[in-house]
Design goal:
It is a single chain. The protein has one domain: Spore Coat Polysaccharide Biosynthesis Protein SpsA, Chain A. Helix 2 packs antiparallel against helix 4. The longest helix has 12 residues. The protein starts with 7 loop residues before the first strand and ends with a helix. It is of the alpha/beta class. The strands form three sheets. The chain has a six-stranded mixed beta sheet, sandwiched between helices. The chain is about 25% helix and about 25% strand.
C-alpha cells in the first residue's frame, strides 16, 4: 500500500456550472471560495494540490493550474486526463492521482488514507456513500493516461462511468456525519442556491 501523502490531488473546476449560473469554484463559503475549502480539507492528506481550470483563472495565485488538454471542455474526464498527463512522467511519478470536484466542501478527513488502502497500480479506487459511487472522487492510476486520451478522441465518450468500466475498479464506502438537520453525506455537493444555503449552515454550526 502506498503512503496516502504520496499522491498529488487535482481539484476539478473546469466545468461550466450551468445550474448555479456562475462559477461554483469561486462561490464564497464562509471566508473562502468553495474550491479553497476543498483544498483545505485535502492539504494534510496529499503530496500536492492543483486546480484543473483555464489558464489565467481567478485562483491562479492560490493553487497551481492544470488546464484541460482539450479545447472542447468535454467534462470531468478532461480534468482527469490533465492530472494524469502532468504526473505520469514526473520524477518519482506517483502510481495514482486523486481527483475531487470543486463543490464538495465536507470531504472526509481520512479520504485519501482509506482510498489508498485499496489502491494497486492498475485499479481505479472510487469513494462511495449510502451505496452510491462517486466516480469523480477517486484515485486514478497514472498508467491510464494514454488510454484516456484515446478514449476522449471520440466525442461520444464523455461519461465517467463508461471509461471506468474499461478498467479494474473498486469502491470504498464512507459514513455520513451528523449535521444540523440530520445525517450529511460527506460527498454532498453544491449544485443549487439551496445547497449553498445548507452548506453555509453546516459550516456555521461546525462541520467535522
Amino acid at each position: 500500500m502506498a503512503e496516502p501523502t504520496a499522491f498529488p490531488a487535482v481539484i476539478l473546476a473546469g466545468g461550466l456550472s450551468r445550474r448555479m449560473g456562475h462559477d461554483k469554484a469561486l462561490i464564497q463559503l464562509g471566508q473562502m471560495p468553495l474550491a479553497l475549502h476543498v483544498a483545505a480539507r485535502l492539504a494534510p492528506q496529499v503530496k500536492s494540490l492543483h486546480l484543473n481550470a483555464p489558464q489565467g483563472y481567478a485562483l491562479t495565485g492560490n493553487l497551481p493550474i492544470l488546464p484541460d488538454p482539450r479545447p472542447d471542455r468535454p467534462g470531468p474526464l478532461a480534468g482527469v486526463l490533465a492530472g494524469l498527463k502532468a504526473f505520469i512522467d514526473s520524477p518519482g511519478a506517483p502510481t495514482h492521482i486523486l481527483t475531487v470536484p470543486c463543490d464538495t466542501p465536507f470531504l472526509p478527513l481520512d479520504l485519501v488514507r482509506r482510498l489508498a488502502g485499496q489502491a494497486d497500480p492498475g485499479t481505479i479506487v472510487m469513494a462511495a456513500s449510502a451505496g452510491r459511487s462517486h466516480p469523480v472522487t477517486a484515485l486514478w492510476p497514472v498508467r491510464l493516461a494514454e488510454d484516456l486520451e484515446t478514449w476522449l478522441n471520440d466525442p461520444a465518450h464523455r461519461r465517467v462511468f463508461d471509461f471506468i468500466a474499461r478498467h479494474p475498479a473498486r469502491t470504498v464506502e464512507f459514513p455520513f456525519f451528523d449535521g444540523p438537520f440530520g445525517p450529511i453525506d460527506p460527498f454532498f455537493n453544491i449544485n443549487t442556491p439551496e445547497d449553498l444555503a445548507l452548506a453555509r449552515t453546516i459550516l456555521e454550526r461546525g462541520a467535522p
